[in-house]
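Shipment paperwork, digital attachment
Item: protein structure file
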Amino acid sequence: MGDYDSIRTGRNCVFLMHVHLVFVTKYRHQVFGDRHLRRMEEIMRAVCADFEAELVEFNGEANHVHLLVNYPPKVAVSKLVNSLKGVSSRRLRQEFPDLVRHYWRAQRLWSGSYFAGSVGGAPLSIVRQYIEQQNRPV
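Attachment content:
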């Protein structure tokens, strides 16, 4: 059954929603080492849990990170993103003073923009077929 084994239920719905997020450092500065990325994953995992979401995958390099997040329909992706970026920036700056030299002028670790793409689920053709069949008389 694959991904459908991880279908989740809420009070009024059943859902399986994933978003692929990419955050880039301000000015694409080469900021992160392995220790920064390890801590960032922990921080972002905790932020996701606060939103009743799950950080399914995390990966990063010196100037960007990729996240795959399973999230409930009540969560606005923009609010999740703002919290992920804000909390990680604040906590990393507190815990790793050496990062200061990369962002002292901008006072921000992350670029103001981000990428968000929907991921997974049934192919659109299958969804379209399902919707069309809902209108057919039995």
